Amino acid sequence: MQARKLIARNRSALWGSHRTFCNYVPADMPVVKKKWRSVEIVGKITETMRNVAAGKLPSSEKFLSKTRPFSSSIGHMMQTTEPVPGCKKHLHLVVGCERGLCGVVGSNLPKMVTKRVRESLKEGGVQNEVIVLGKKTGTKMKATVGDQLSISYGGSKTKMPTFGACLDLSNKILGSGKEFDRCTVYYNVFHNTSKFGPATIDLYNLEISKQIAKAQFPSYDVEGDSSTIIQNLQEFKFATTVYNCMAEQLASEMGSRLASMDAAAKSCKEKAKDFEMIYQRLRKTKITNELTVLSAGAKLAKKK
User: Rounded distance, CA 99 to CA 146, Å?
Assistant: First the structure.
């Protein structure tokens, strides 16, 4: 009995001294090892996604350098410094993210659009409709704006956007009977690998575009039917704007994912080192406890 009491007392004293070490005891070694393994797996996934984003970012920047001059050639036409008043039907076109894990770029646009839609609903007098490009952003917007979301296009941004796809999308929006007075395009502007932020561009329907063109077109030489030319320019501007916004958003998405996954990979490595240290500490404690118990039993056996 004395041997058992002495062994139990020594074991409880040793384990009690180590219980304060991250609240783990040697009996928790399987739990610590499982967490250690899980953190390592997550670290490998984040590191892989970081490498993928790092590989796609240069091509996205190169693609963006071509779309900016292309869209700027017509961007100044039918453009106003301030929103046109009296618009009763407001269309919100959100160029979002197809996949998640891209940091602030994946969350800033849904917050901005949701805030504007809710403020507009409180004020009243304006009919809002939301169209989203991007599966991940569409899922978020569906949970926040509800019935205001009419269409969400998924899978349209899995590859580099093409102008043909933007023309098809513009034809679906402008030629599908969707009536709007003002269309606000939401996207993220890419500055460099660590700087990007949300921006908006306002587009208008054909009637308002004609009114804006009346003030702008006297400075241009127009040949042919002006109404047909304005309609073609309005459709072409809509497609080029969406084209450039998709390129800007793609580059911003890759840059943000690169930064967020790099930080996540570093955090996983540090956490894995912590769990490894805890596991090795508990392993040494367990070995020490077993040796202490054996030596205490041997001493008691010699005394007898």
Answer: 21
Token pair for residue 132? 């989203």
Nearest CA-CA partner of 63 in 154, 153, 163:
163
Euclidean distance between CA atoms 266 and 285, whole angstroms: 29
Residue showing tokens 């077993």: 290
* 23-32, Cβ contacts within 8 angstroms, sequence gap of 24 or more: 24/278, 24/282, 25/282, 26/282, 26/283, 26/285, 26/286, 26/289, 28/282, 29/279, 29/282, 29/283, 29/286, 32/275, 32/278, 32/279, 32/282
Rg (CA), the chain: 31
Give the Cα separation of 297 and 285 in Å (integer). Answer: 18
Query: Under a CB-based contact definition with an 8 Å cutoff, are residues 100 and 136 in contact?
Result: yes
Sign, Cα dihedral of 174, 178, 183, 189:
negative
What residue segments make up the domains of the chain, in order of their start? 65-261
CATH classification for the domain delimited by 65-261, as one of 3.40.1380.10, 3.40.50.2300, 3.40.50.1100, 3.40.30.10: 3.40.1380.10
User: Using an 8 Å Cβ cutoff, are 109 and 137 in contact?
Assistant: yes
The two structure tokens encoding residue 195: 């700087």
pLDDT, tens digit, 9 for 90 and up, residues 108-157 = 999 999 999 999 888 888 899 999 998 888 888 888 888 888 888 887 65
Q: From residue 291, give the alpha-carbon distance in Å to each of 5, 16, 37, 286.
A: 17, 17, 28, 9
Check residue 224 and give left, alpha or beta (phi > 0: left; psi -120 to 50: alpha): left
Give the Cα separation of 52 and 47 in Å (integer). Answer: 9
Where does residue 280 rank: exposed (0-12), middle (13-18), buried (19+ CB within 10 A)?
Answer: exposed
pLDDT tens-place string over residues 82-97: 888 888 899 999 998 8
